[in-house]
Design goal:
Elements lengths: L3 H11 L9 E3 L3 E8 L9 H9 L7 E5 L3 H13 L2 E7 L4 H9 L3 E5 L6 H12 L2 E2 L6 H7 L1 H10 L4 E5 L4 H13 L3 E7 L4 H8 L22 H10 L2 E5 L1 H15 L9 H7 L10 E5 L6 H8 L5
Parallel strand pairs: 2-10, 3-4, 3-6, 4-5, 7-8, 7-10, 8-9
Antiparallel strand pairs: 1-2
Helix pairs in contact: 1-6, 1-8, 2-3, 2-6, 3-4, 6-8, 7-8, 8-10, 11-12
Length: 312
Amino acid sequence: MIGPEDVRAAARVLDGVAHRTPVITSRTLGEGVLLKPENLQRGGAFKFRGAYNKISSLPHGARVVAFSSGNHAQAVALASSLIGADATILMPEDAPASKLAATRGYGANVVIYDRYTGDREAIAAALADELDAEIVPPYDDPLIAAGQGTAALELLEDAGVVDTLVVPVGGGGLIAGSATIAKSLGVRRVVGVEPAAGNDWQQSFAAGEIVAIDVTRTIADGLQTHAPGKLPWAVASQLVDEIVTVTDAQMVDAMRFAFERLKLVIEPSGAVGLAAVREGIVPTGSGPIGIVISGGNVAADRFAQLLAPSSA
């Protein structure tokens, strides 16, 4: 488990290193809707917060291994380059080319695997043994979750305590850290949003225990998890009030809205919270709503393809 003090400690570690992304509003969404655009974060996503908080705790020159479809990969690569660690990243062969290129660009060694047939945790463990390296998981770690929760802490510090906090959910590090700090500050309701095609969290909440599903195909590559992480589940199952889902088409509509009206480029995974509010899946009206926009790592050609009328 993690506590609010862990999130605050992570905020001190990240002070002056991570961007303090702004809180923005939209008259179209309503004056009570507040957005935290982590697509403007270093590495293009909230993942930098957890990766830096974790890797900065390791000895200088440490070797690290991570597995990710893209955003955590870039975050670990960037944080390692800043801290002086040597990073090896396991990435699926269908990861977006832009994310692969960015990860290599930050200086990491990339190892490719098939996400539909390979066990990424087992492969990563073998790599860590071979390299005598520390595994930096994408979400199932207290320092990772605490670091990721600083996005919500900043939102609530800068805009005031909201009634409802809406957070994308994949493995669960972001929502675990966010719910931990949000509930301690008086947020009434925390809602997680995941792809309808891969609702492992929703099924887990219904069952009252972790439910594993097959890895599904969705445009939200950053949320293609097959089961909640153990630590995030321990936290979120106690503090999160509801898990809802959105379709790929609803994500695309939210991406288009963000581009046309907010001048923000966000990736499908980053758009799920905005989509849920725009579609009325998370209703407005009971008080201010804070939405974490988790990332914007999408290539220009892919972005254009998704927003083309035929793609939705």
